[in-house]
Task: structure prediction
Amino acid sequence: MRIARIIARILLGLAFGVMPWTAILHLAPNPPMPPAAGAFIDALIKTGYMLPLVWGTEIVAGLLLLAGIFVPFALILLAPILVNIFLYHAVLNHSGFLLAVFLCLLELFMAWQYRHSFDALFVSTPAAEPAAMGAPAAAVRQS
Result:
């Protein structure tokens, strides 16, 4: 299972560490899109910040996955992006749907492999508050 985890991590890292550059640097021609998909992409472009934000997040997460550091954090960064990619291809533009499904399956597999890293996210009661920066716990309680 260790080898499968490494392969999945590298494939996901390559997809998000490399694929955004094809759009940023216009390395591939833009395929024709259905009108609704084109309107969606045009809206993202017109914001002026959304596509650079998404691309930057994808690249950072992809590089973290390739380096094998902060992998659970990278998976959390990619989760909402992958949901959007999946829904975009399921609803607006069916071309690329199989790639979207494959990337989502890789993400789910990796999330399962690192599931214990996410335990603290699903606790219903907050943990005890840590002491303020360098102050003894008694001093924090008195203030």
Notes: Residues 2-117 form one domain. The chain has a mean pLDDT of 90.
